[in-house]
Amino acid sequence: MADQWKRTALLVIDMQRDFIDEHSVFAVPGASTIIPSVSTAVEIARNRGLFIIWVVREHDGEGRDVERFRRHYYGNGKPNPLVKGSKGAELVQGLEIKEGEYKLVKTRFSAFFNTNLRSLLQGAGITDLVVCGVQTPNCIRQTVFDAVALDYHSITLLYDATAAATPKVHHDVDGP
């Protein structure tokens, strides 16, 4: 592994069927268009030896660990989104976790909130982050804000490998 990349991790956030499939209640419109860019980012990260962390949402089948504002999606007689072990919680076709990569399960927007991400990164000597996935105003932004607050040296957002339901919000991340 090249020395310049040994302190960098790629966070691939929420590239799951329930966020990408246009028929899902949590679908991010247009998110399927970033799959090739995310796939390319992952392959480049693998080739350079970055630590790859697949951040996913997985919830209890009853929705007991879901944010209060989303609980109405659970227990309504329809398939519950992002339930551990369900098709919707799987990564989208074309993306897969390989040996040596890490799957981090979260239940809130930030990948740092109530998870072991910070200690995992510290233990691996990671100081720099590259972030991609969905969706920009929620999980991406909150994870990046928390990384800034935790004093990571460099945080890079892969603009063409992220998506948002609201294009203006996504565009504003890149600047005017």
DSSP helical segment count: 5
β-strand amount: 15-25%
Judging by the overall fold, what is the CATH architecture?
Answer: 3-Layer(aba) Sandwich
- What is the CA–CA distance across the termini? 37 Å
CATH class: Alpha Beta
Structural class: alpha/beta
Instruction: Tell me the number of strands.
Output: 5
Radius of gyration, taken over Cα atoms and rounded to an integer in Å: 16 Å
- Which fold does the CATH topology refer to? Rossmann fold
Low-confidence stretches: none
User: Which strand order spans the largest sheet, edge to edge or round the barrel?
Assistant: 3-2-1-4-5
Number of domains: 1
Could you give a short account of the major beta sheet?
Answer: 5 strands, parallel
Range of helix content: 25-40%
The CATH homologous superfamily is termed Isochorismatase-like
Layout of helices and strands:
Elements (H helix, E strand, L loop, with lengths): L7 E6 L3 H4 L14 H14 L2 E7 L44 E5 L10 H7 L4 E7 L1 H14 L4 E10 L3 H8 L2
Parallel strand pairs: 1-2, 1-4, 2-3, 4-5
List keywords for this structure.
5 strands, about 20% strand, five-stranded parallel sheet, alpha/beta, 5 helices, Rossmann fold, about 180 residues, single chain
What's the short version?
The protein is an alpha/beta fold. It contains five helices and five strands; from the N terminus they run βααββαβαβα. It is globular, with a radius of gyration of 16 Å.
Account of the protein in words:
The protein is an alpha/beta fold. It has a single domain, classed as Rossmann fold. Helices cover 27% and strands 20% of the residues. The chain is built from 5 helices and 5 strands, in the order E-H-H-E-E-H-E-H-E-H. The chain has a 5-stranded parallel sheet, with helices on both faces. The radius of gyration is 16 Å and the shape is globular. The model has no long low-confidence stretch (mean pLDDT 91).
